[in-house]
Automatic annotation (TrEMBL):
Single GO term (MF): ubiquitin protein ligase activity
Record protein name field: RING-type E3 ubiquitin transferase
Zinc-finger among keywords: yes
Source species: Ceratodon purpureus (Fire moss)
Involved pathway(s): Protein modification; protein ubiquitination
Length: 301
């Protein structure tokens, strides 16, 4: 688990604790001790105060330090310093290099909410790992026997990602819950231009041997366009039997908002179910799972 705690006052102020702390150290309002923000006022002796403190009944328009009038004169030196301040993303220790001007900080919360480096809980039931989103594919590979599928897919293009899951694979026999991670190239049209940040789809494929059930689900970890633009399509093929070509299709779900989504999808069966192997649509009774292969595609809507 990484040593990251949610910012205590982030919702209230839109400013992250890390950022706020840095500024409070450097430039607090001497009256309310909150970070100074333009307009900043000063008395004739150079004592500064924020706009709301100048209006307070408590101060009655006078400087609490020297009783000189306060609230008429702006302090352009301090305002200029504040306007030149740049704040790091609170996930800088995890690798985010983005900065923002302090005066645009209210918009910054939007970045930190979707920052590619913010930590995610691994959605696998029982796994408490928490890592930046971009590390998740490697975590799935290392800890959950996940398979990485590289794709040239971009969120904005017309291509589809497709790959095949061979049920006869030796790996497949030992692992009844399979994760396939489809890495997606960064979208050149987003603000992440120039970075090699990638999104990915996580396809969970489960086999229930006892009931001969196969299920598929597909989730993304944002941006949300990934879930609204794509659908998961699974073609069930029985090589050598041209009559068997059954297709199932379902939505791509957004893991971003709901960290327990994957476990819910699996537990509640809210996923694509392949017909039982002895179903007539799959060619009849004597089939075993080694007879089938699944061609999985992500289709652009
Ligand atoms: Zn103040
Ligand atoms: Zn004063
Ligand atoms: Zn960031
Ligand atoms: Zn995990």
């Amino acid at each position: 688990m990484l040593p990251i705690k949610p910012a205590v006052n982030e919702k209230e102020t839109g400013i992250s604790t890390r950022s706020t702390n840095k500024l409070m150290d450097a430039l607090p309002c001497p009256i309310c001790l909150k970070p100074l923000f333009p307009p900043v006022y000063q008395c004739q002796n150079g004592h500064t105060a924020c706009a709301s403190c100048c209006k307070l009944q408590l101060t009655k328009g006078t400087c609490p330090s020297c009783s000189a009038p306060l609230g008429g004169n702006r302090c352009s030196v301090v305002e200029n310093i504040i306007e030149s301040l740049e704040i790091n993303c609170k996930y800088d220790i995890l690798g985010c290099l983005k900065t923002v001007q302090y005066t645009k900080l209210s918009k910054w919360a939007e970045h930190e909410d979707v920052c590619e480096f913010r930590p995610f809980h691994c959605p696998v039931v029982g796994c408490n790992y928490e890592v930046p989103k971009l590390i998740l594919p490697l975590h799935f590979q290392d800890s959950h026997n996940g398979r990485l599928v590289l794709s040239e897919l971009q969120p904005d293009d017309q291509r589809k990602a497709s790959f095949t899951i061979e049920t006869g694979d030796s790996d497949y026999d030992v692992c009844h819950s399979q994760y396939v991670i489809v890495l997606v190239s960064s979208d050149e049209n987003t603000e992440d231009q120039g970075s090699d940040v990638k999104s990915f789809f996580l396809i969970h494929h489960q086999v229930d041997d006892e009931f001969c059930r196969y299920s598929f689900s597909c989730t993304t970890f944002g941006p949300s366009i990934m879930s609204t633009r794509y659908r998961l399509l699974v073609e069930i093929e029985k090589p050598g039997n041209l009559k068997v070509n059954h297709t199932i299709e379902g939505p791509v779900l957004d893991n971003q908002e709901d960290k327990t989504l994957l476990s819910k999808v699996v537990r509640h069966g809210d996923c694509l179910l392949v017909p039982k192997l002895n179903d007539s649509r799959l060619g009849g009774s004597s089939a075993t799972r080694k007879d089938f292969s699944f061609r999985v595609q992500l289709l652009l809507l």
